[in-house]
Amino acid sequence: MQDSTARQNPSVAVIGAGMTGILMAIKLREAGITDITILEKADKLGGTWRENTYPGVACDVPAHMYTYSFRGNPEWSHRFARGAEIQQYFQQVADEQGVTGQVRFNEAVESCHYVDGKWQLGTSKGTQLEVDFVVSATGILHHPAYPDIEGLDSFKGDMWHTARWNHDVDLAGKRVGIIGTGSTACQAIGEIGHTAGHLTVFQRTPQWIIRVADKSYSEADKARLRGRQDKLAAISRRYAFVLRNTFSKAVTGSKLQHAYMSWTAKRNLRKSVRDPELRKKLTPDYPVGCKRLIINNTFYDAVQRDNVTVETTAIERICDAGVVTSDGVTHELDVLILATGFHPFNFMRPMDLRGRNGQTIDEAWSKKVQAYRSLCLPGFPNFFLMLGPNTPIGNYSVIAMSEVQASYMLKLIDLWRRGDLPVVEATEQAKQRFNAYLREGMKNTVWVGGCQSWYLDADGDPAMWPYSWQQWEKELQQPELDDFVRVAPEEAEPLRPAA
Ligand code: N01
């Protein structure tokens, strides 16, 4: 066991300097932990907001709720903040809090092994690091999913994924195709529809969309909020209250709220799209909220423009000239945009992560990607996975989720610092119990409503939190000590052979 001085100020490596990594750096320091190393693979912080720069990129959670609770932002331009200003906000908070200077940029963690009670990290710069704790703050949706369509690489025009936007190509007047109609595509289509010569939207599955007025904040609005963290916090609480009592309830079992949400989405489609043929194409056949509900005010208008076509015939293959659909038509294109989503179950991978006894993360997750309370992995002591499996609560703010997880994690680290836990490691039984509890809750949710979405794992189980936000917050208030390893295997008495 380590001596108490080392326990007082454990060394911590934070992997990733996105929204969660910045938060962790701040919270660890507040807890009196100063030996913190933040490793970031890119040359800038910001994570998802650094990587997604497609036209129309914005947050579909109200901006005043999409902030750290300790640092409201009076400068938001709109109710739904644009990607660039969100990136600027994180940069500003990181600068103000002295986090930016602590980040080791352009240094990806390639290996992370638990050896003799410490984590040994190897980075892309060839440096080695030994720490007591590792916090993986690598985010959920950061590995673009490229569609498995025959001939994808044969396309001779320009082609890119929305998370790797090519700003060198001007779309004005071009024949553009976009595959996908998820949240990203809907935002991008709203913008590209105005610039492209012709835009073909290849839709495999229609989506339910809700319109929420996106008011802009005037200079006077902003001035009233400057220096008023109390007012900003109150606005954030109001939005949180509304989301918790409408959307979050609707997806986790409240029939009344679900009926209201369904009515709103169906009405939006009916009122927004005049042509019955097009409306039919855009009408999903699964319950509202089964796929992540899209909050968008521009998509329906864009697809009714003369220069935009919604193509619902299945894509057969891609050729050098464009997209060939199963009716034999070749849709000739200059640019093909892949708005085909992400691999949500990669988390910290492809990092070579090995826990106790050299067990790899691929071995640990060979049957299922699961964690205890989304954060702890049995066999991986003193390792935390922020925003891990079953974190998301529908369209709720991931910042709020991260803050609750951060506070829970610090309580666990504190137990270790006081010597009450030999290591912070959930037991396998606790993980199984927790996941059985999640499975039970899933039965009431709308995510098992028969649609295909990124929420579902390989077995078709949603990797979401199936209960209320309040329940989640309550359960992460205090760690339950019995769910954690009480004697680290290396400290246990050696087993004596039976006489
Ligand atoms: O990805 P998606 P996204 N052939 O997986 C289609 C967050 N986000 O990037 O529905 C044809 O939702 C696929 O079709 P189908 C938010 O959490 C947040 O749009 O599977 N089509 C679908 O239409 C969101 O939920 C904000 O049939 C193919 C699309 O590609 C998450 O990111 C903004 C295909 C993928 O949709 C992911 O959204 C934007 C194929 N082979 C995004 N493969 C905020 O505002 C895939 N598709 C916070």
From TrEMBL:
Keyword vocabulary terms for this entry: FAD, Flavoprotein, Oxidoreductase
InterPro entries per the UniProt record, alphabetical: FAD-bind_Monooxygenase_sf, FAD/NAD-bd_sf, Flavin_mOase-like
Gene Ontology molecular functions: flavin adenine dinucleotide binding; N,N-dimethylaniline monooxygenase activity; NADP binding
Residues making up the signal peptide according to the UniProt record: none
Keyword Oxidoreductase: yes
Name of one Pfam family that matches: FMO-like
PANTHER family: FAD_NAD(P)-BINDING DOMAIN-CONTAINING PROTEIN-RELATED, L-ORNITHINE N(5)-MONOOXYGENASE-RELATED
Name of the protein: NAD(P)/FAD-dependent oxidoreductase
Species for this entry: Pseudohalioglobus lutimaris
Higher taxonomy: Bacteria, Pseudomonadati, Pseudomonadota, Gammaproteobacteria, Cellvibrionales
